[in-house]
Prior knowledge:
single chain, alpha+beta, CATH 3.30.1330.50, 6 strands, globular
Amino acid sequence: MQYEYANGIGQDSHRFMQPCEAQLKSADKWPKKLILGGVEFEGETPLVANSDGDAVLHALTNAISGVTGINILGAIADQMCKEGITDSSKYLEKAISFSRDQNWELTHISISIEAKRPKFMNKIGPMKVRIGELTGIDPGRVGITATSGENLTRFGEGEGIMVFCSVTMRRPEE
């Protein structure tokens, strides 16, 4: 069988919440959690966003949108937020649904994260597993790298998280 291949690139970034924005009830209780790649980072500062702020899943959603041409993060996600759907995995699910409607199959995901904090080493494995569960591909076909950014950008200075994602997709040629 012959296949048509396409690559999509997605990006997303969010800054960390500040205590005054979070309206903390106590000094150590945030109103939401830091979630990246569908995995909770316990005890870490959450990101500013209408949704759960999962910049990894947002970048992945944008990369898939780059192949399908249907932007999820924008009007579609805004409407979902208005309906109370703030789980970023639901935005990814919507992007995958559109890709399947167009007969695309996700074959590889590459994710690059820039952030001074939190530390990612112990979370990369669980993130790959969770992304595999959400997308239906083997976690071995999910690559994740993280860099501190060496204080060269606002992300490298610890003010937020930036994520780039590349996807490879294929579909049977007609």
